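User: My instructor asked us to take a sequence, write out its structure as tokens, and then describe one feature of it. I'm not sure where to start. Here is the sequence I was given:
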Amino acid sequence: MKKLLLFTIVVLGLYLRVRAAWLQSFWGDESSIFTVSMRNSLKSLILVEHWDKCHPQLFYVFLHFWQKISTNILFLRIPTLLAFIPTIFFIYKIGKQTGGWLMGILSSIFFATNHFFVNLGFQQKMYAFEMVFMFGTIYWMQMTLTAKSKKSQLLFIVFAVLGFYTDYSFVWLWASVWLTAIILYITKSIQKTALRKFFKSLFIATLFMLPQVPIVLRSLTAALGLEAYSGIPIYETVRYAIANYAGLINLLPYDLVLIIIISVSALFLTIKSQQKNAIILTLTSLLCFYVTLTTSYFISQTHPIFIPRNLLVSSFLFIFLIPYVISQSKNQYLKIILIVIFFLHIARILPISLKLKDGFQGLDQWSEIHETAKKINGPFTLVIISDKEYALDALYAYYFDGYYDGTKITKFNEQWIKIKEVDNWIMPQSMQYANNIIFISDPDQIKNKSDEISKISAQICQNRMCYGPFTLQGAYKSP
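Assistant: Let's start with the prediction itself. The structure tokens for your sequence are:
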């Protein structure tokens, strides 16, 4: 029965991710990652001698070889989709050895159906691999601290190092793991022999990460220069991030109260049980949440880096601690009530993953733009109503240079209409527009501008053939 439940969860999670991978176009980030891996030599990728300084090299090196087989969108996303299976394995195993099979099942269901993880789990990006290594690190951390196997020490080191070289967001987990080890040492919650071996593993893994430091320092300016992308966060920004981690797209009512209840309940049950795996996971999850969000928030006041997917370790509180509290409830009536509330929440968040409209990734329609452009005989103009000029180069490269389906599209020009120009816009007298027009608009920037957009369209499309408007890449919704 338990195996059948887990198998059903895997099938459901894969269905949501494969469906998204099949229906969704490449968006700006995916196209950028593709073009970086395509256009740079292996040496440049290893030494991070290209424009993307925000990510380490492991995923780029892998993709450099993978995309040589095929540049089809679904093919490029296959590794990400397959990464879901070991991720669910680690989540279930962590839950099972911490609070029993019920916790493992509940944690797995939450991860499989949450739109935030579905979005991360189908895109041709490094985050799906990052989650495999993060959860693997936590699993082997528990095994190292509670078992005497040298195998667990070695695997802890391997997963941690691979995680760091996959994405720099791993440093939030790594900082929390170090803090957890220090607290365990001070409180004497784990045997000294096991802690001594664990600290040795921590130091060895950190040593393997040190060769990246010169590259990180060289890339620091670019990595911290995300003002145009993420902006300076406010308190509501943090609340929206927390809502995403909970599987929602709107603010979570009484979110602070809920977080405090979860944290206090998990701590109380952990202290009461004195179960070592519970102590390790509860401490790590709480530190991942509070330290990551707080530190990132304050850093972002001067160097904006507050992007929810880069702070995904904060979500571990929802993945593990809520199922832990439910599974450890001794009152059977209370446990049943909590399980019912949990599945009501799953029923609430599942349709969000099915809609594929919301969250940071948003809708974009570049496959439709490409198909429209193929049907046009002669030159055409892309009229783009947005300020996001940085988002287009990589999309052009993938969709118009022949990688998408082998068809190259070259006879086009761009005309940008900035957001500040939308009100009272008048068409320039000079002939800047071809007889065929493809409209692309940015839903994040033109809210409540439908009348103005209609007037612009009427001016441009007079005596011309117009298509669209299509949607430019979405962005994480912040207030």
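For the description part of your assignment, you could build on this observation: The longest strand covers residues 465-471. Try explaining in your own words what that tells you about the chain.
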